[in-house]
Task: inverse folding
């Protein structure tokens, strides 16, 4: 398979040198190593640049729960759809969510039944919509990890302080470190190291992965998103594995500070509090969600609109849950590229721009 990142001569020279270095270091391993990337952007970059095909056969790259759309439980999606169908509601969300199937329908189908669903590019767009439509209730579907939670928190603070009472958020936000700990505690999950997300870590800081290293002995490296970043980070992980070390190392130093972003974290802590949350494929993980604090309860759609989604279930035959935990790959799913394609997705891993199935379909078929 041709490697796109080798097309540019100077970049190609650098990447070839990193590939040779990676091969030399991988030769020191006593057994094959399984490395899980925990970021949907890494998943897409690995597939797009052909990195999986370029690295030594002794290394296996497996995808984890790094796609925020994909890990959002069907019950949360169904709840937002039920709220969107209520009278006098304007439901706002990012584009990826429009085509994600719920149990009975997706947001696109709900729009066809009369729901007012609008795509926004930021939470502030939704807040602006609330200002412009004072007679409607504007609800934003808050999905995503620590990268998107600060902007949602900022919008809630502004709505609260400006008395924009018709703006609400249905929070399905999640935090990454508890999910990694849950993965490590999963029986039979063979992961030797984590390639950790750069964007999330820019907010929470590298020390957030200390439990993974100290309690489970799993090496972690925070990686950037260019081919050179990923290859260098893999070499760093291999060196830890070969030496029997478990540390948190930072490769993406140009984008991540050792302390993270204290201002963003303070905004999250002001508006949200930890709660138990359901992850697709992992079940309910204690302390892995972000619930809206009592101070901002007037803007909490879950309290204002308690809908019944007891009917929620996963799509029949879909292996998204197993793919998100690294137990299966997209090629293991009988629906992949057959019944399930980007034009006709059955599960969220084929819908999202960061989904593993979408990455494989676009670049690895």
Result:
């Amino acid at each position: 398979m041709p490697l796109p990142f080798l097309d540019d001569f100077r970049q190609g020279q650098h990447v070839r040198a990193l590939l040779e270095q990676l091969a030399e270091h991988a030769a020191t391993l006593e057994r094959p190593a399984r490395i899980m990337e925990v970021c949907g952007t890494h998943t897409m970059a690995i597939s797009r640049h052909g990195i999986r095909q370029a690295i030594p056969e002794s290394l296996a790259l497996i995808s984890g729960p790094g796609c925020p759309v994909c890990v959002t439980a069907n019950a949360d999606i169904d709840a937002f759809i039920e709220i969107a169908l209520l009278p006098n509601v304007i439901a706002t969300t990012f584009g990826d969510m429009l085509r994600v199937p719920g149990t009975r329908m997706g947001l696109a189908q709900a729009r066809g039944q009369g729901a007012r669903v609008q795509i926004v590019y930021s939470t502030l767009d939704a807040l602006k919509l609330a200002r412009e439509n004072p007679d409607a209730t504007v609800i934003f579907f808050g999905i995503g990890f620590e990268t998107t939670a600060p902007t949602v928190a900022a919008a809630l603070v502004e709505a609260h302080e400006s008395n924009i009472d018709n703006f609400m958020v249905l929070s399905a936000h999640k935090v990454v470190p508890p999910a990694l700990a849950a993965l490590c505690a999963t029986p039979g999950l063979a992961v030797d190291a984590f390639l950790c997300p750069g964007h999330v870590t820019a907010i929470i800081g590298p020390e957030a992965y200390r439990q993974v290293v100290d309690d489970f002995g799993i090496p972690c490296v925070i990686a950037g998103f260019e081919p050179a970043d990923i290859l260098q980070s893999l070499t760093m992980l291999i060196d830890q594995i070969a030496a029997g070390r478990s540390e948190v190392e930072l490769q993406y130093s140009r984008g991540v500070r050792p302390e993270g972003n204290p201002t963003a974290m303070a905004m999250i802590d002001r508006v949200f509090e930890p709660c138990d949350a359901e992850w697709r494929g992992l079940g309910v993980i204690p302390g892995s969600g972000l619930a809206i604090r009592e101070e901002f309860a007037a803007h909490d759609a879950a309290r204002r609109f308690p809908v019944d989604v007891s009917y929620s279930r996963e799509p029949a035959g879909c292996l998204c849950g197993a793919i998100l935990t690294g137990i299966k790959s997209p090629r293991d799913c009988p629906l992949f590229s057959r019944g399930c394609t980007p034009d006709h997705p059955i599960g969220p891993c084929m819908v999202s721009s960061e989904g593993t199935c979408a990455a494989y379909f676009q670049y690895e078929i």
About this structure: The first helix runs from residue 9 to 26. The chain has a mean pLDDT of 94. The radius of gyration is 21 Å.
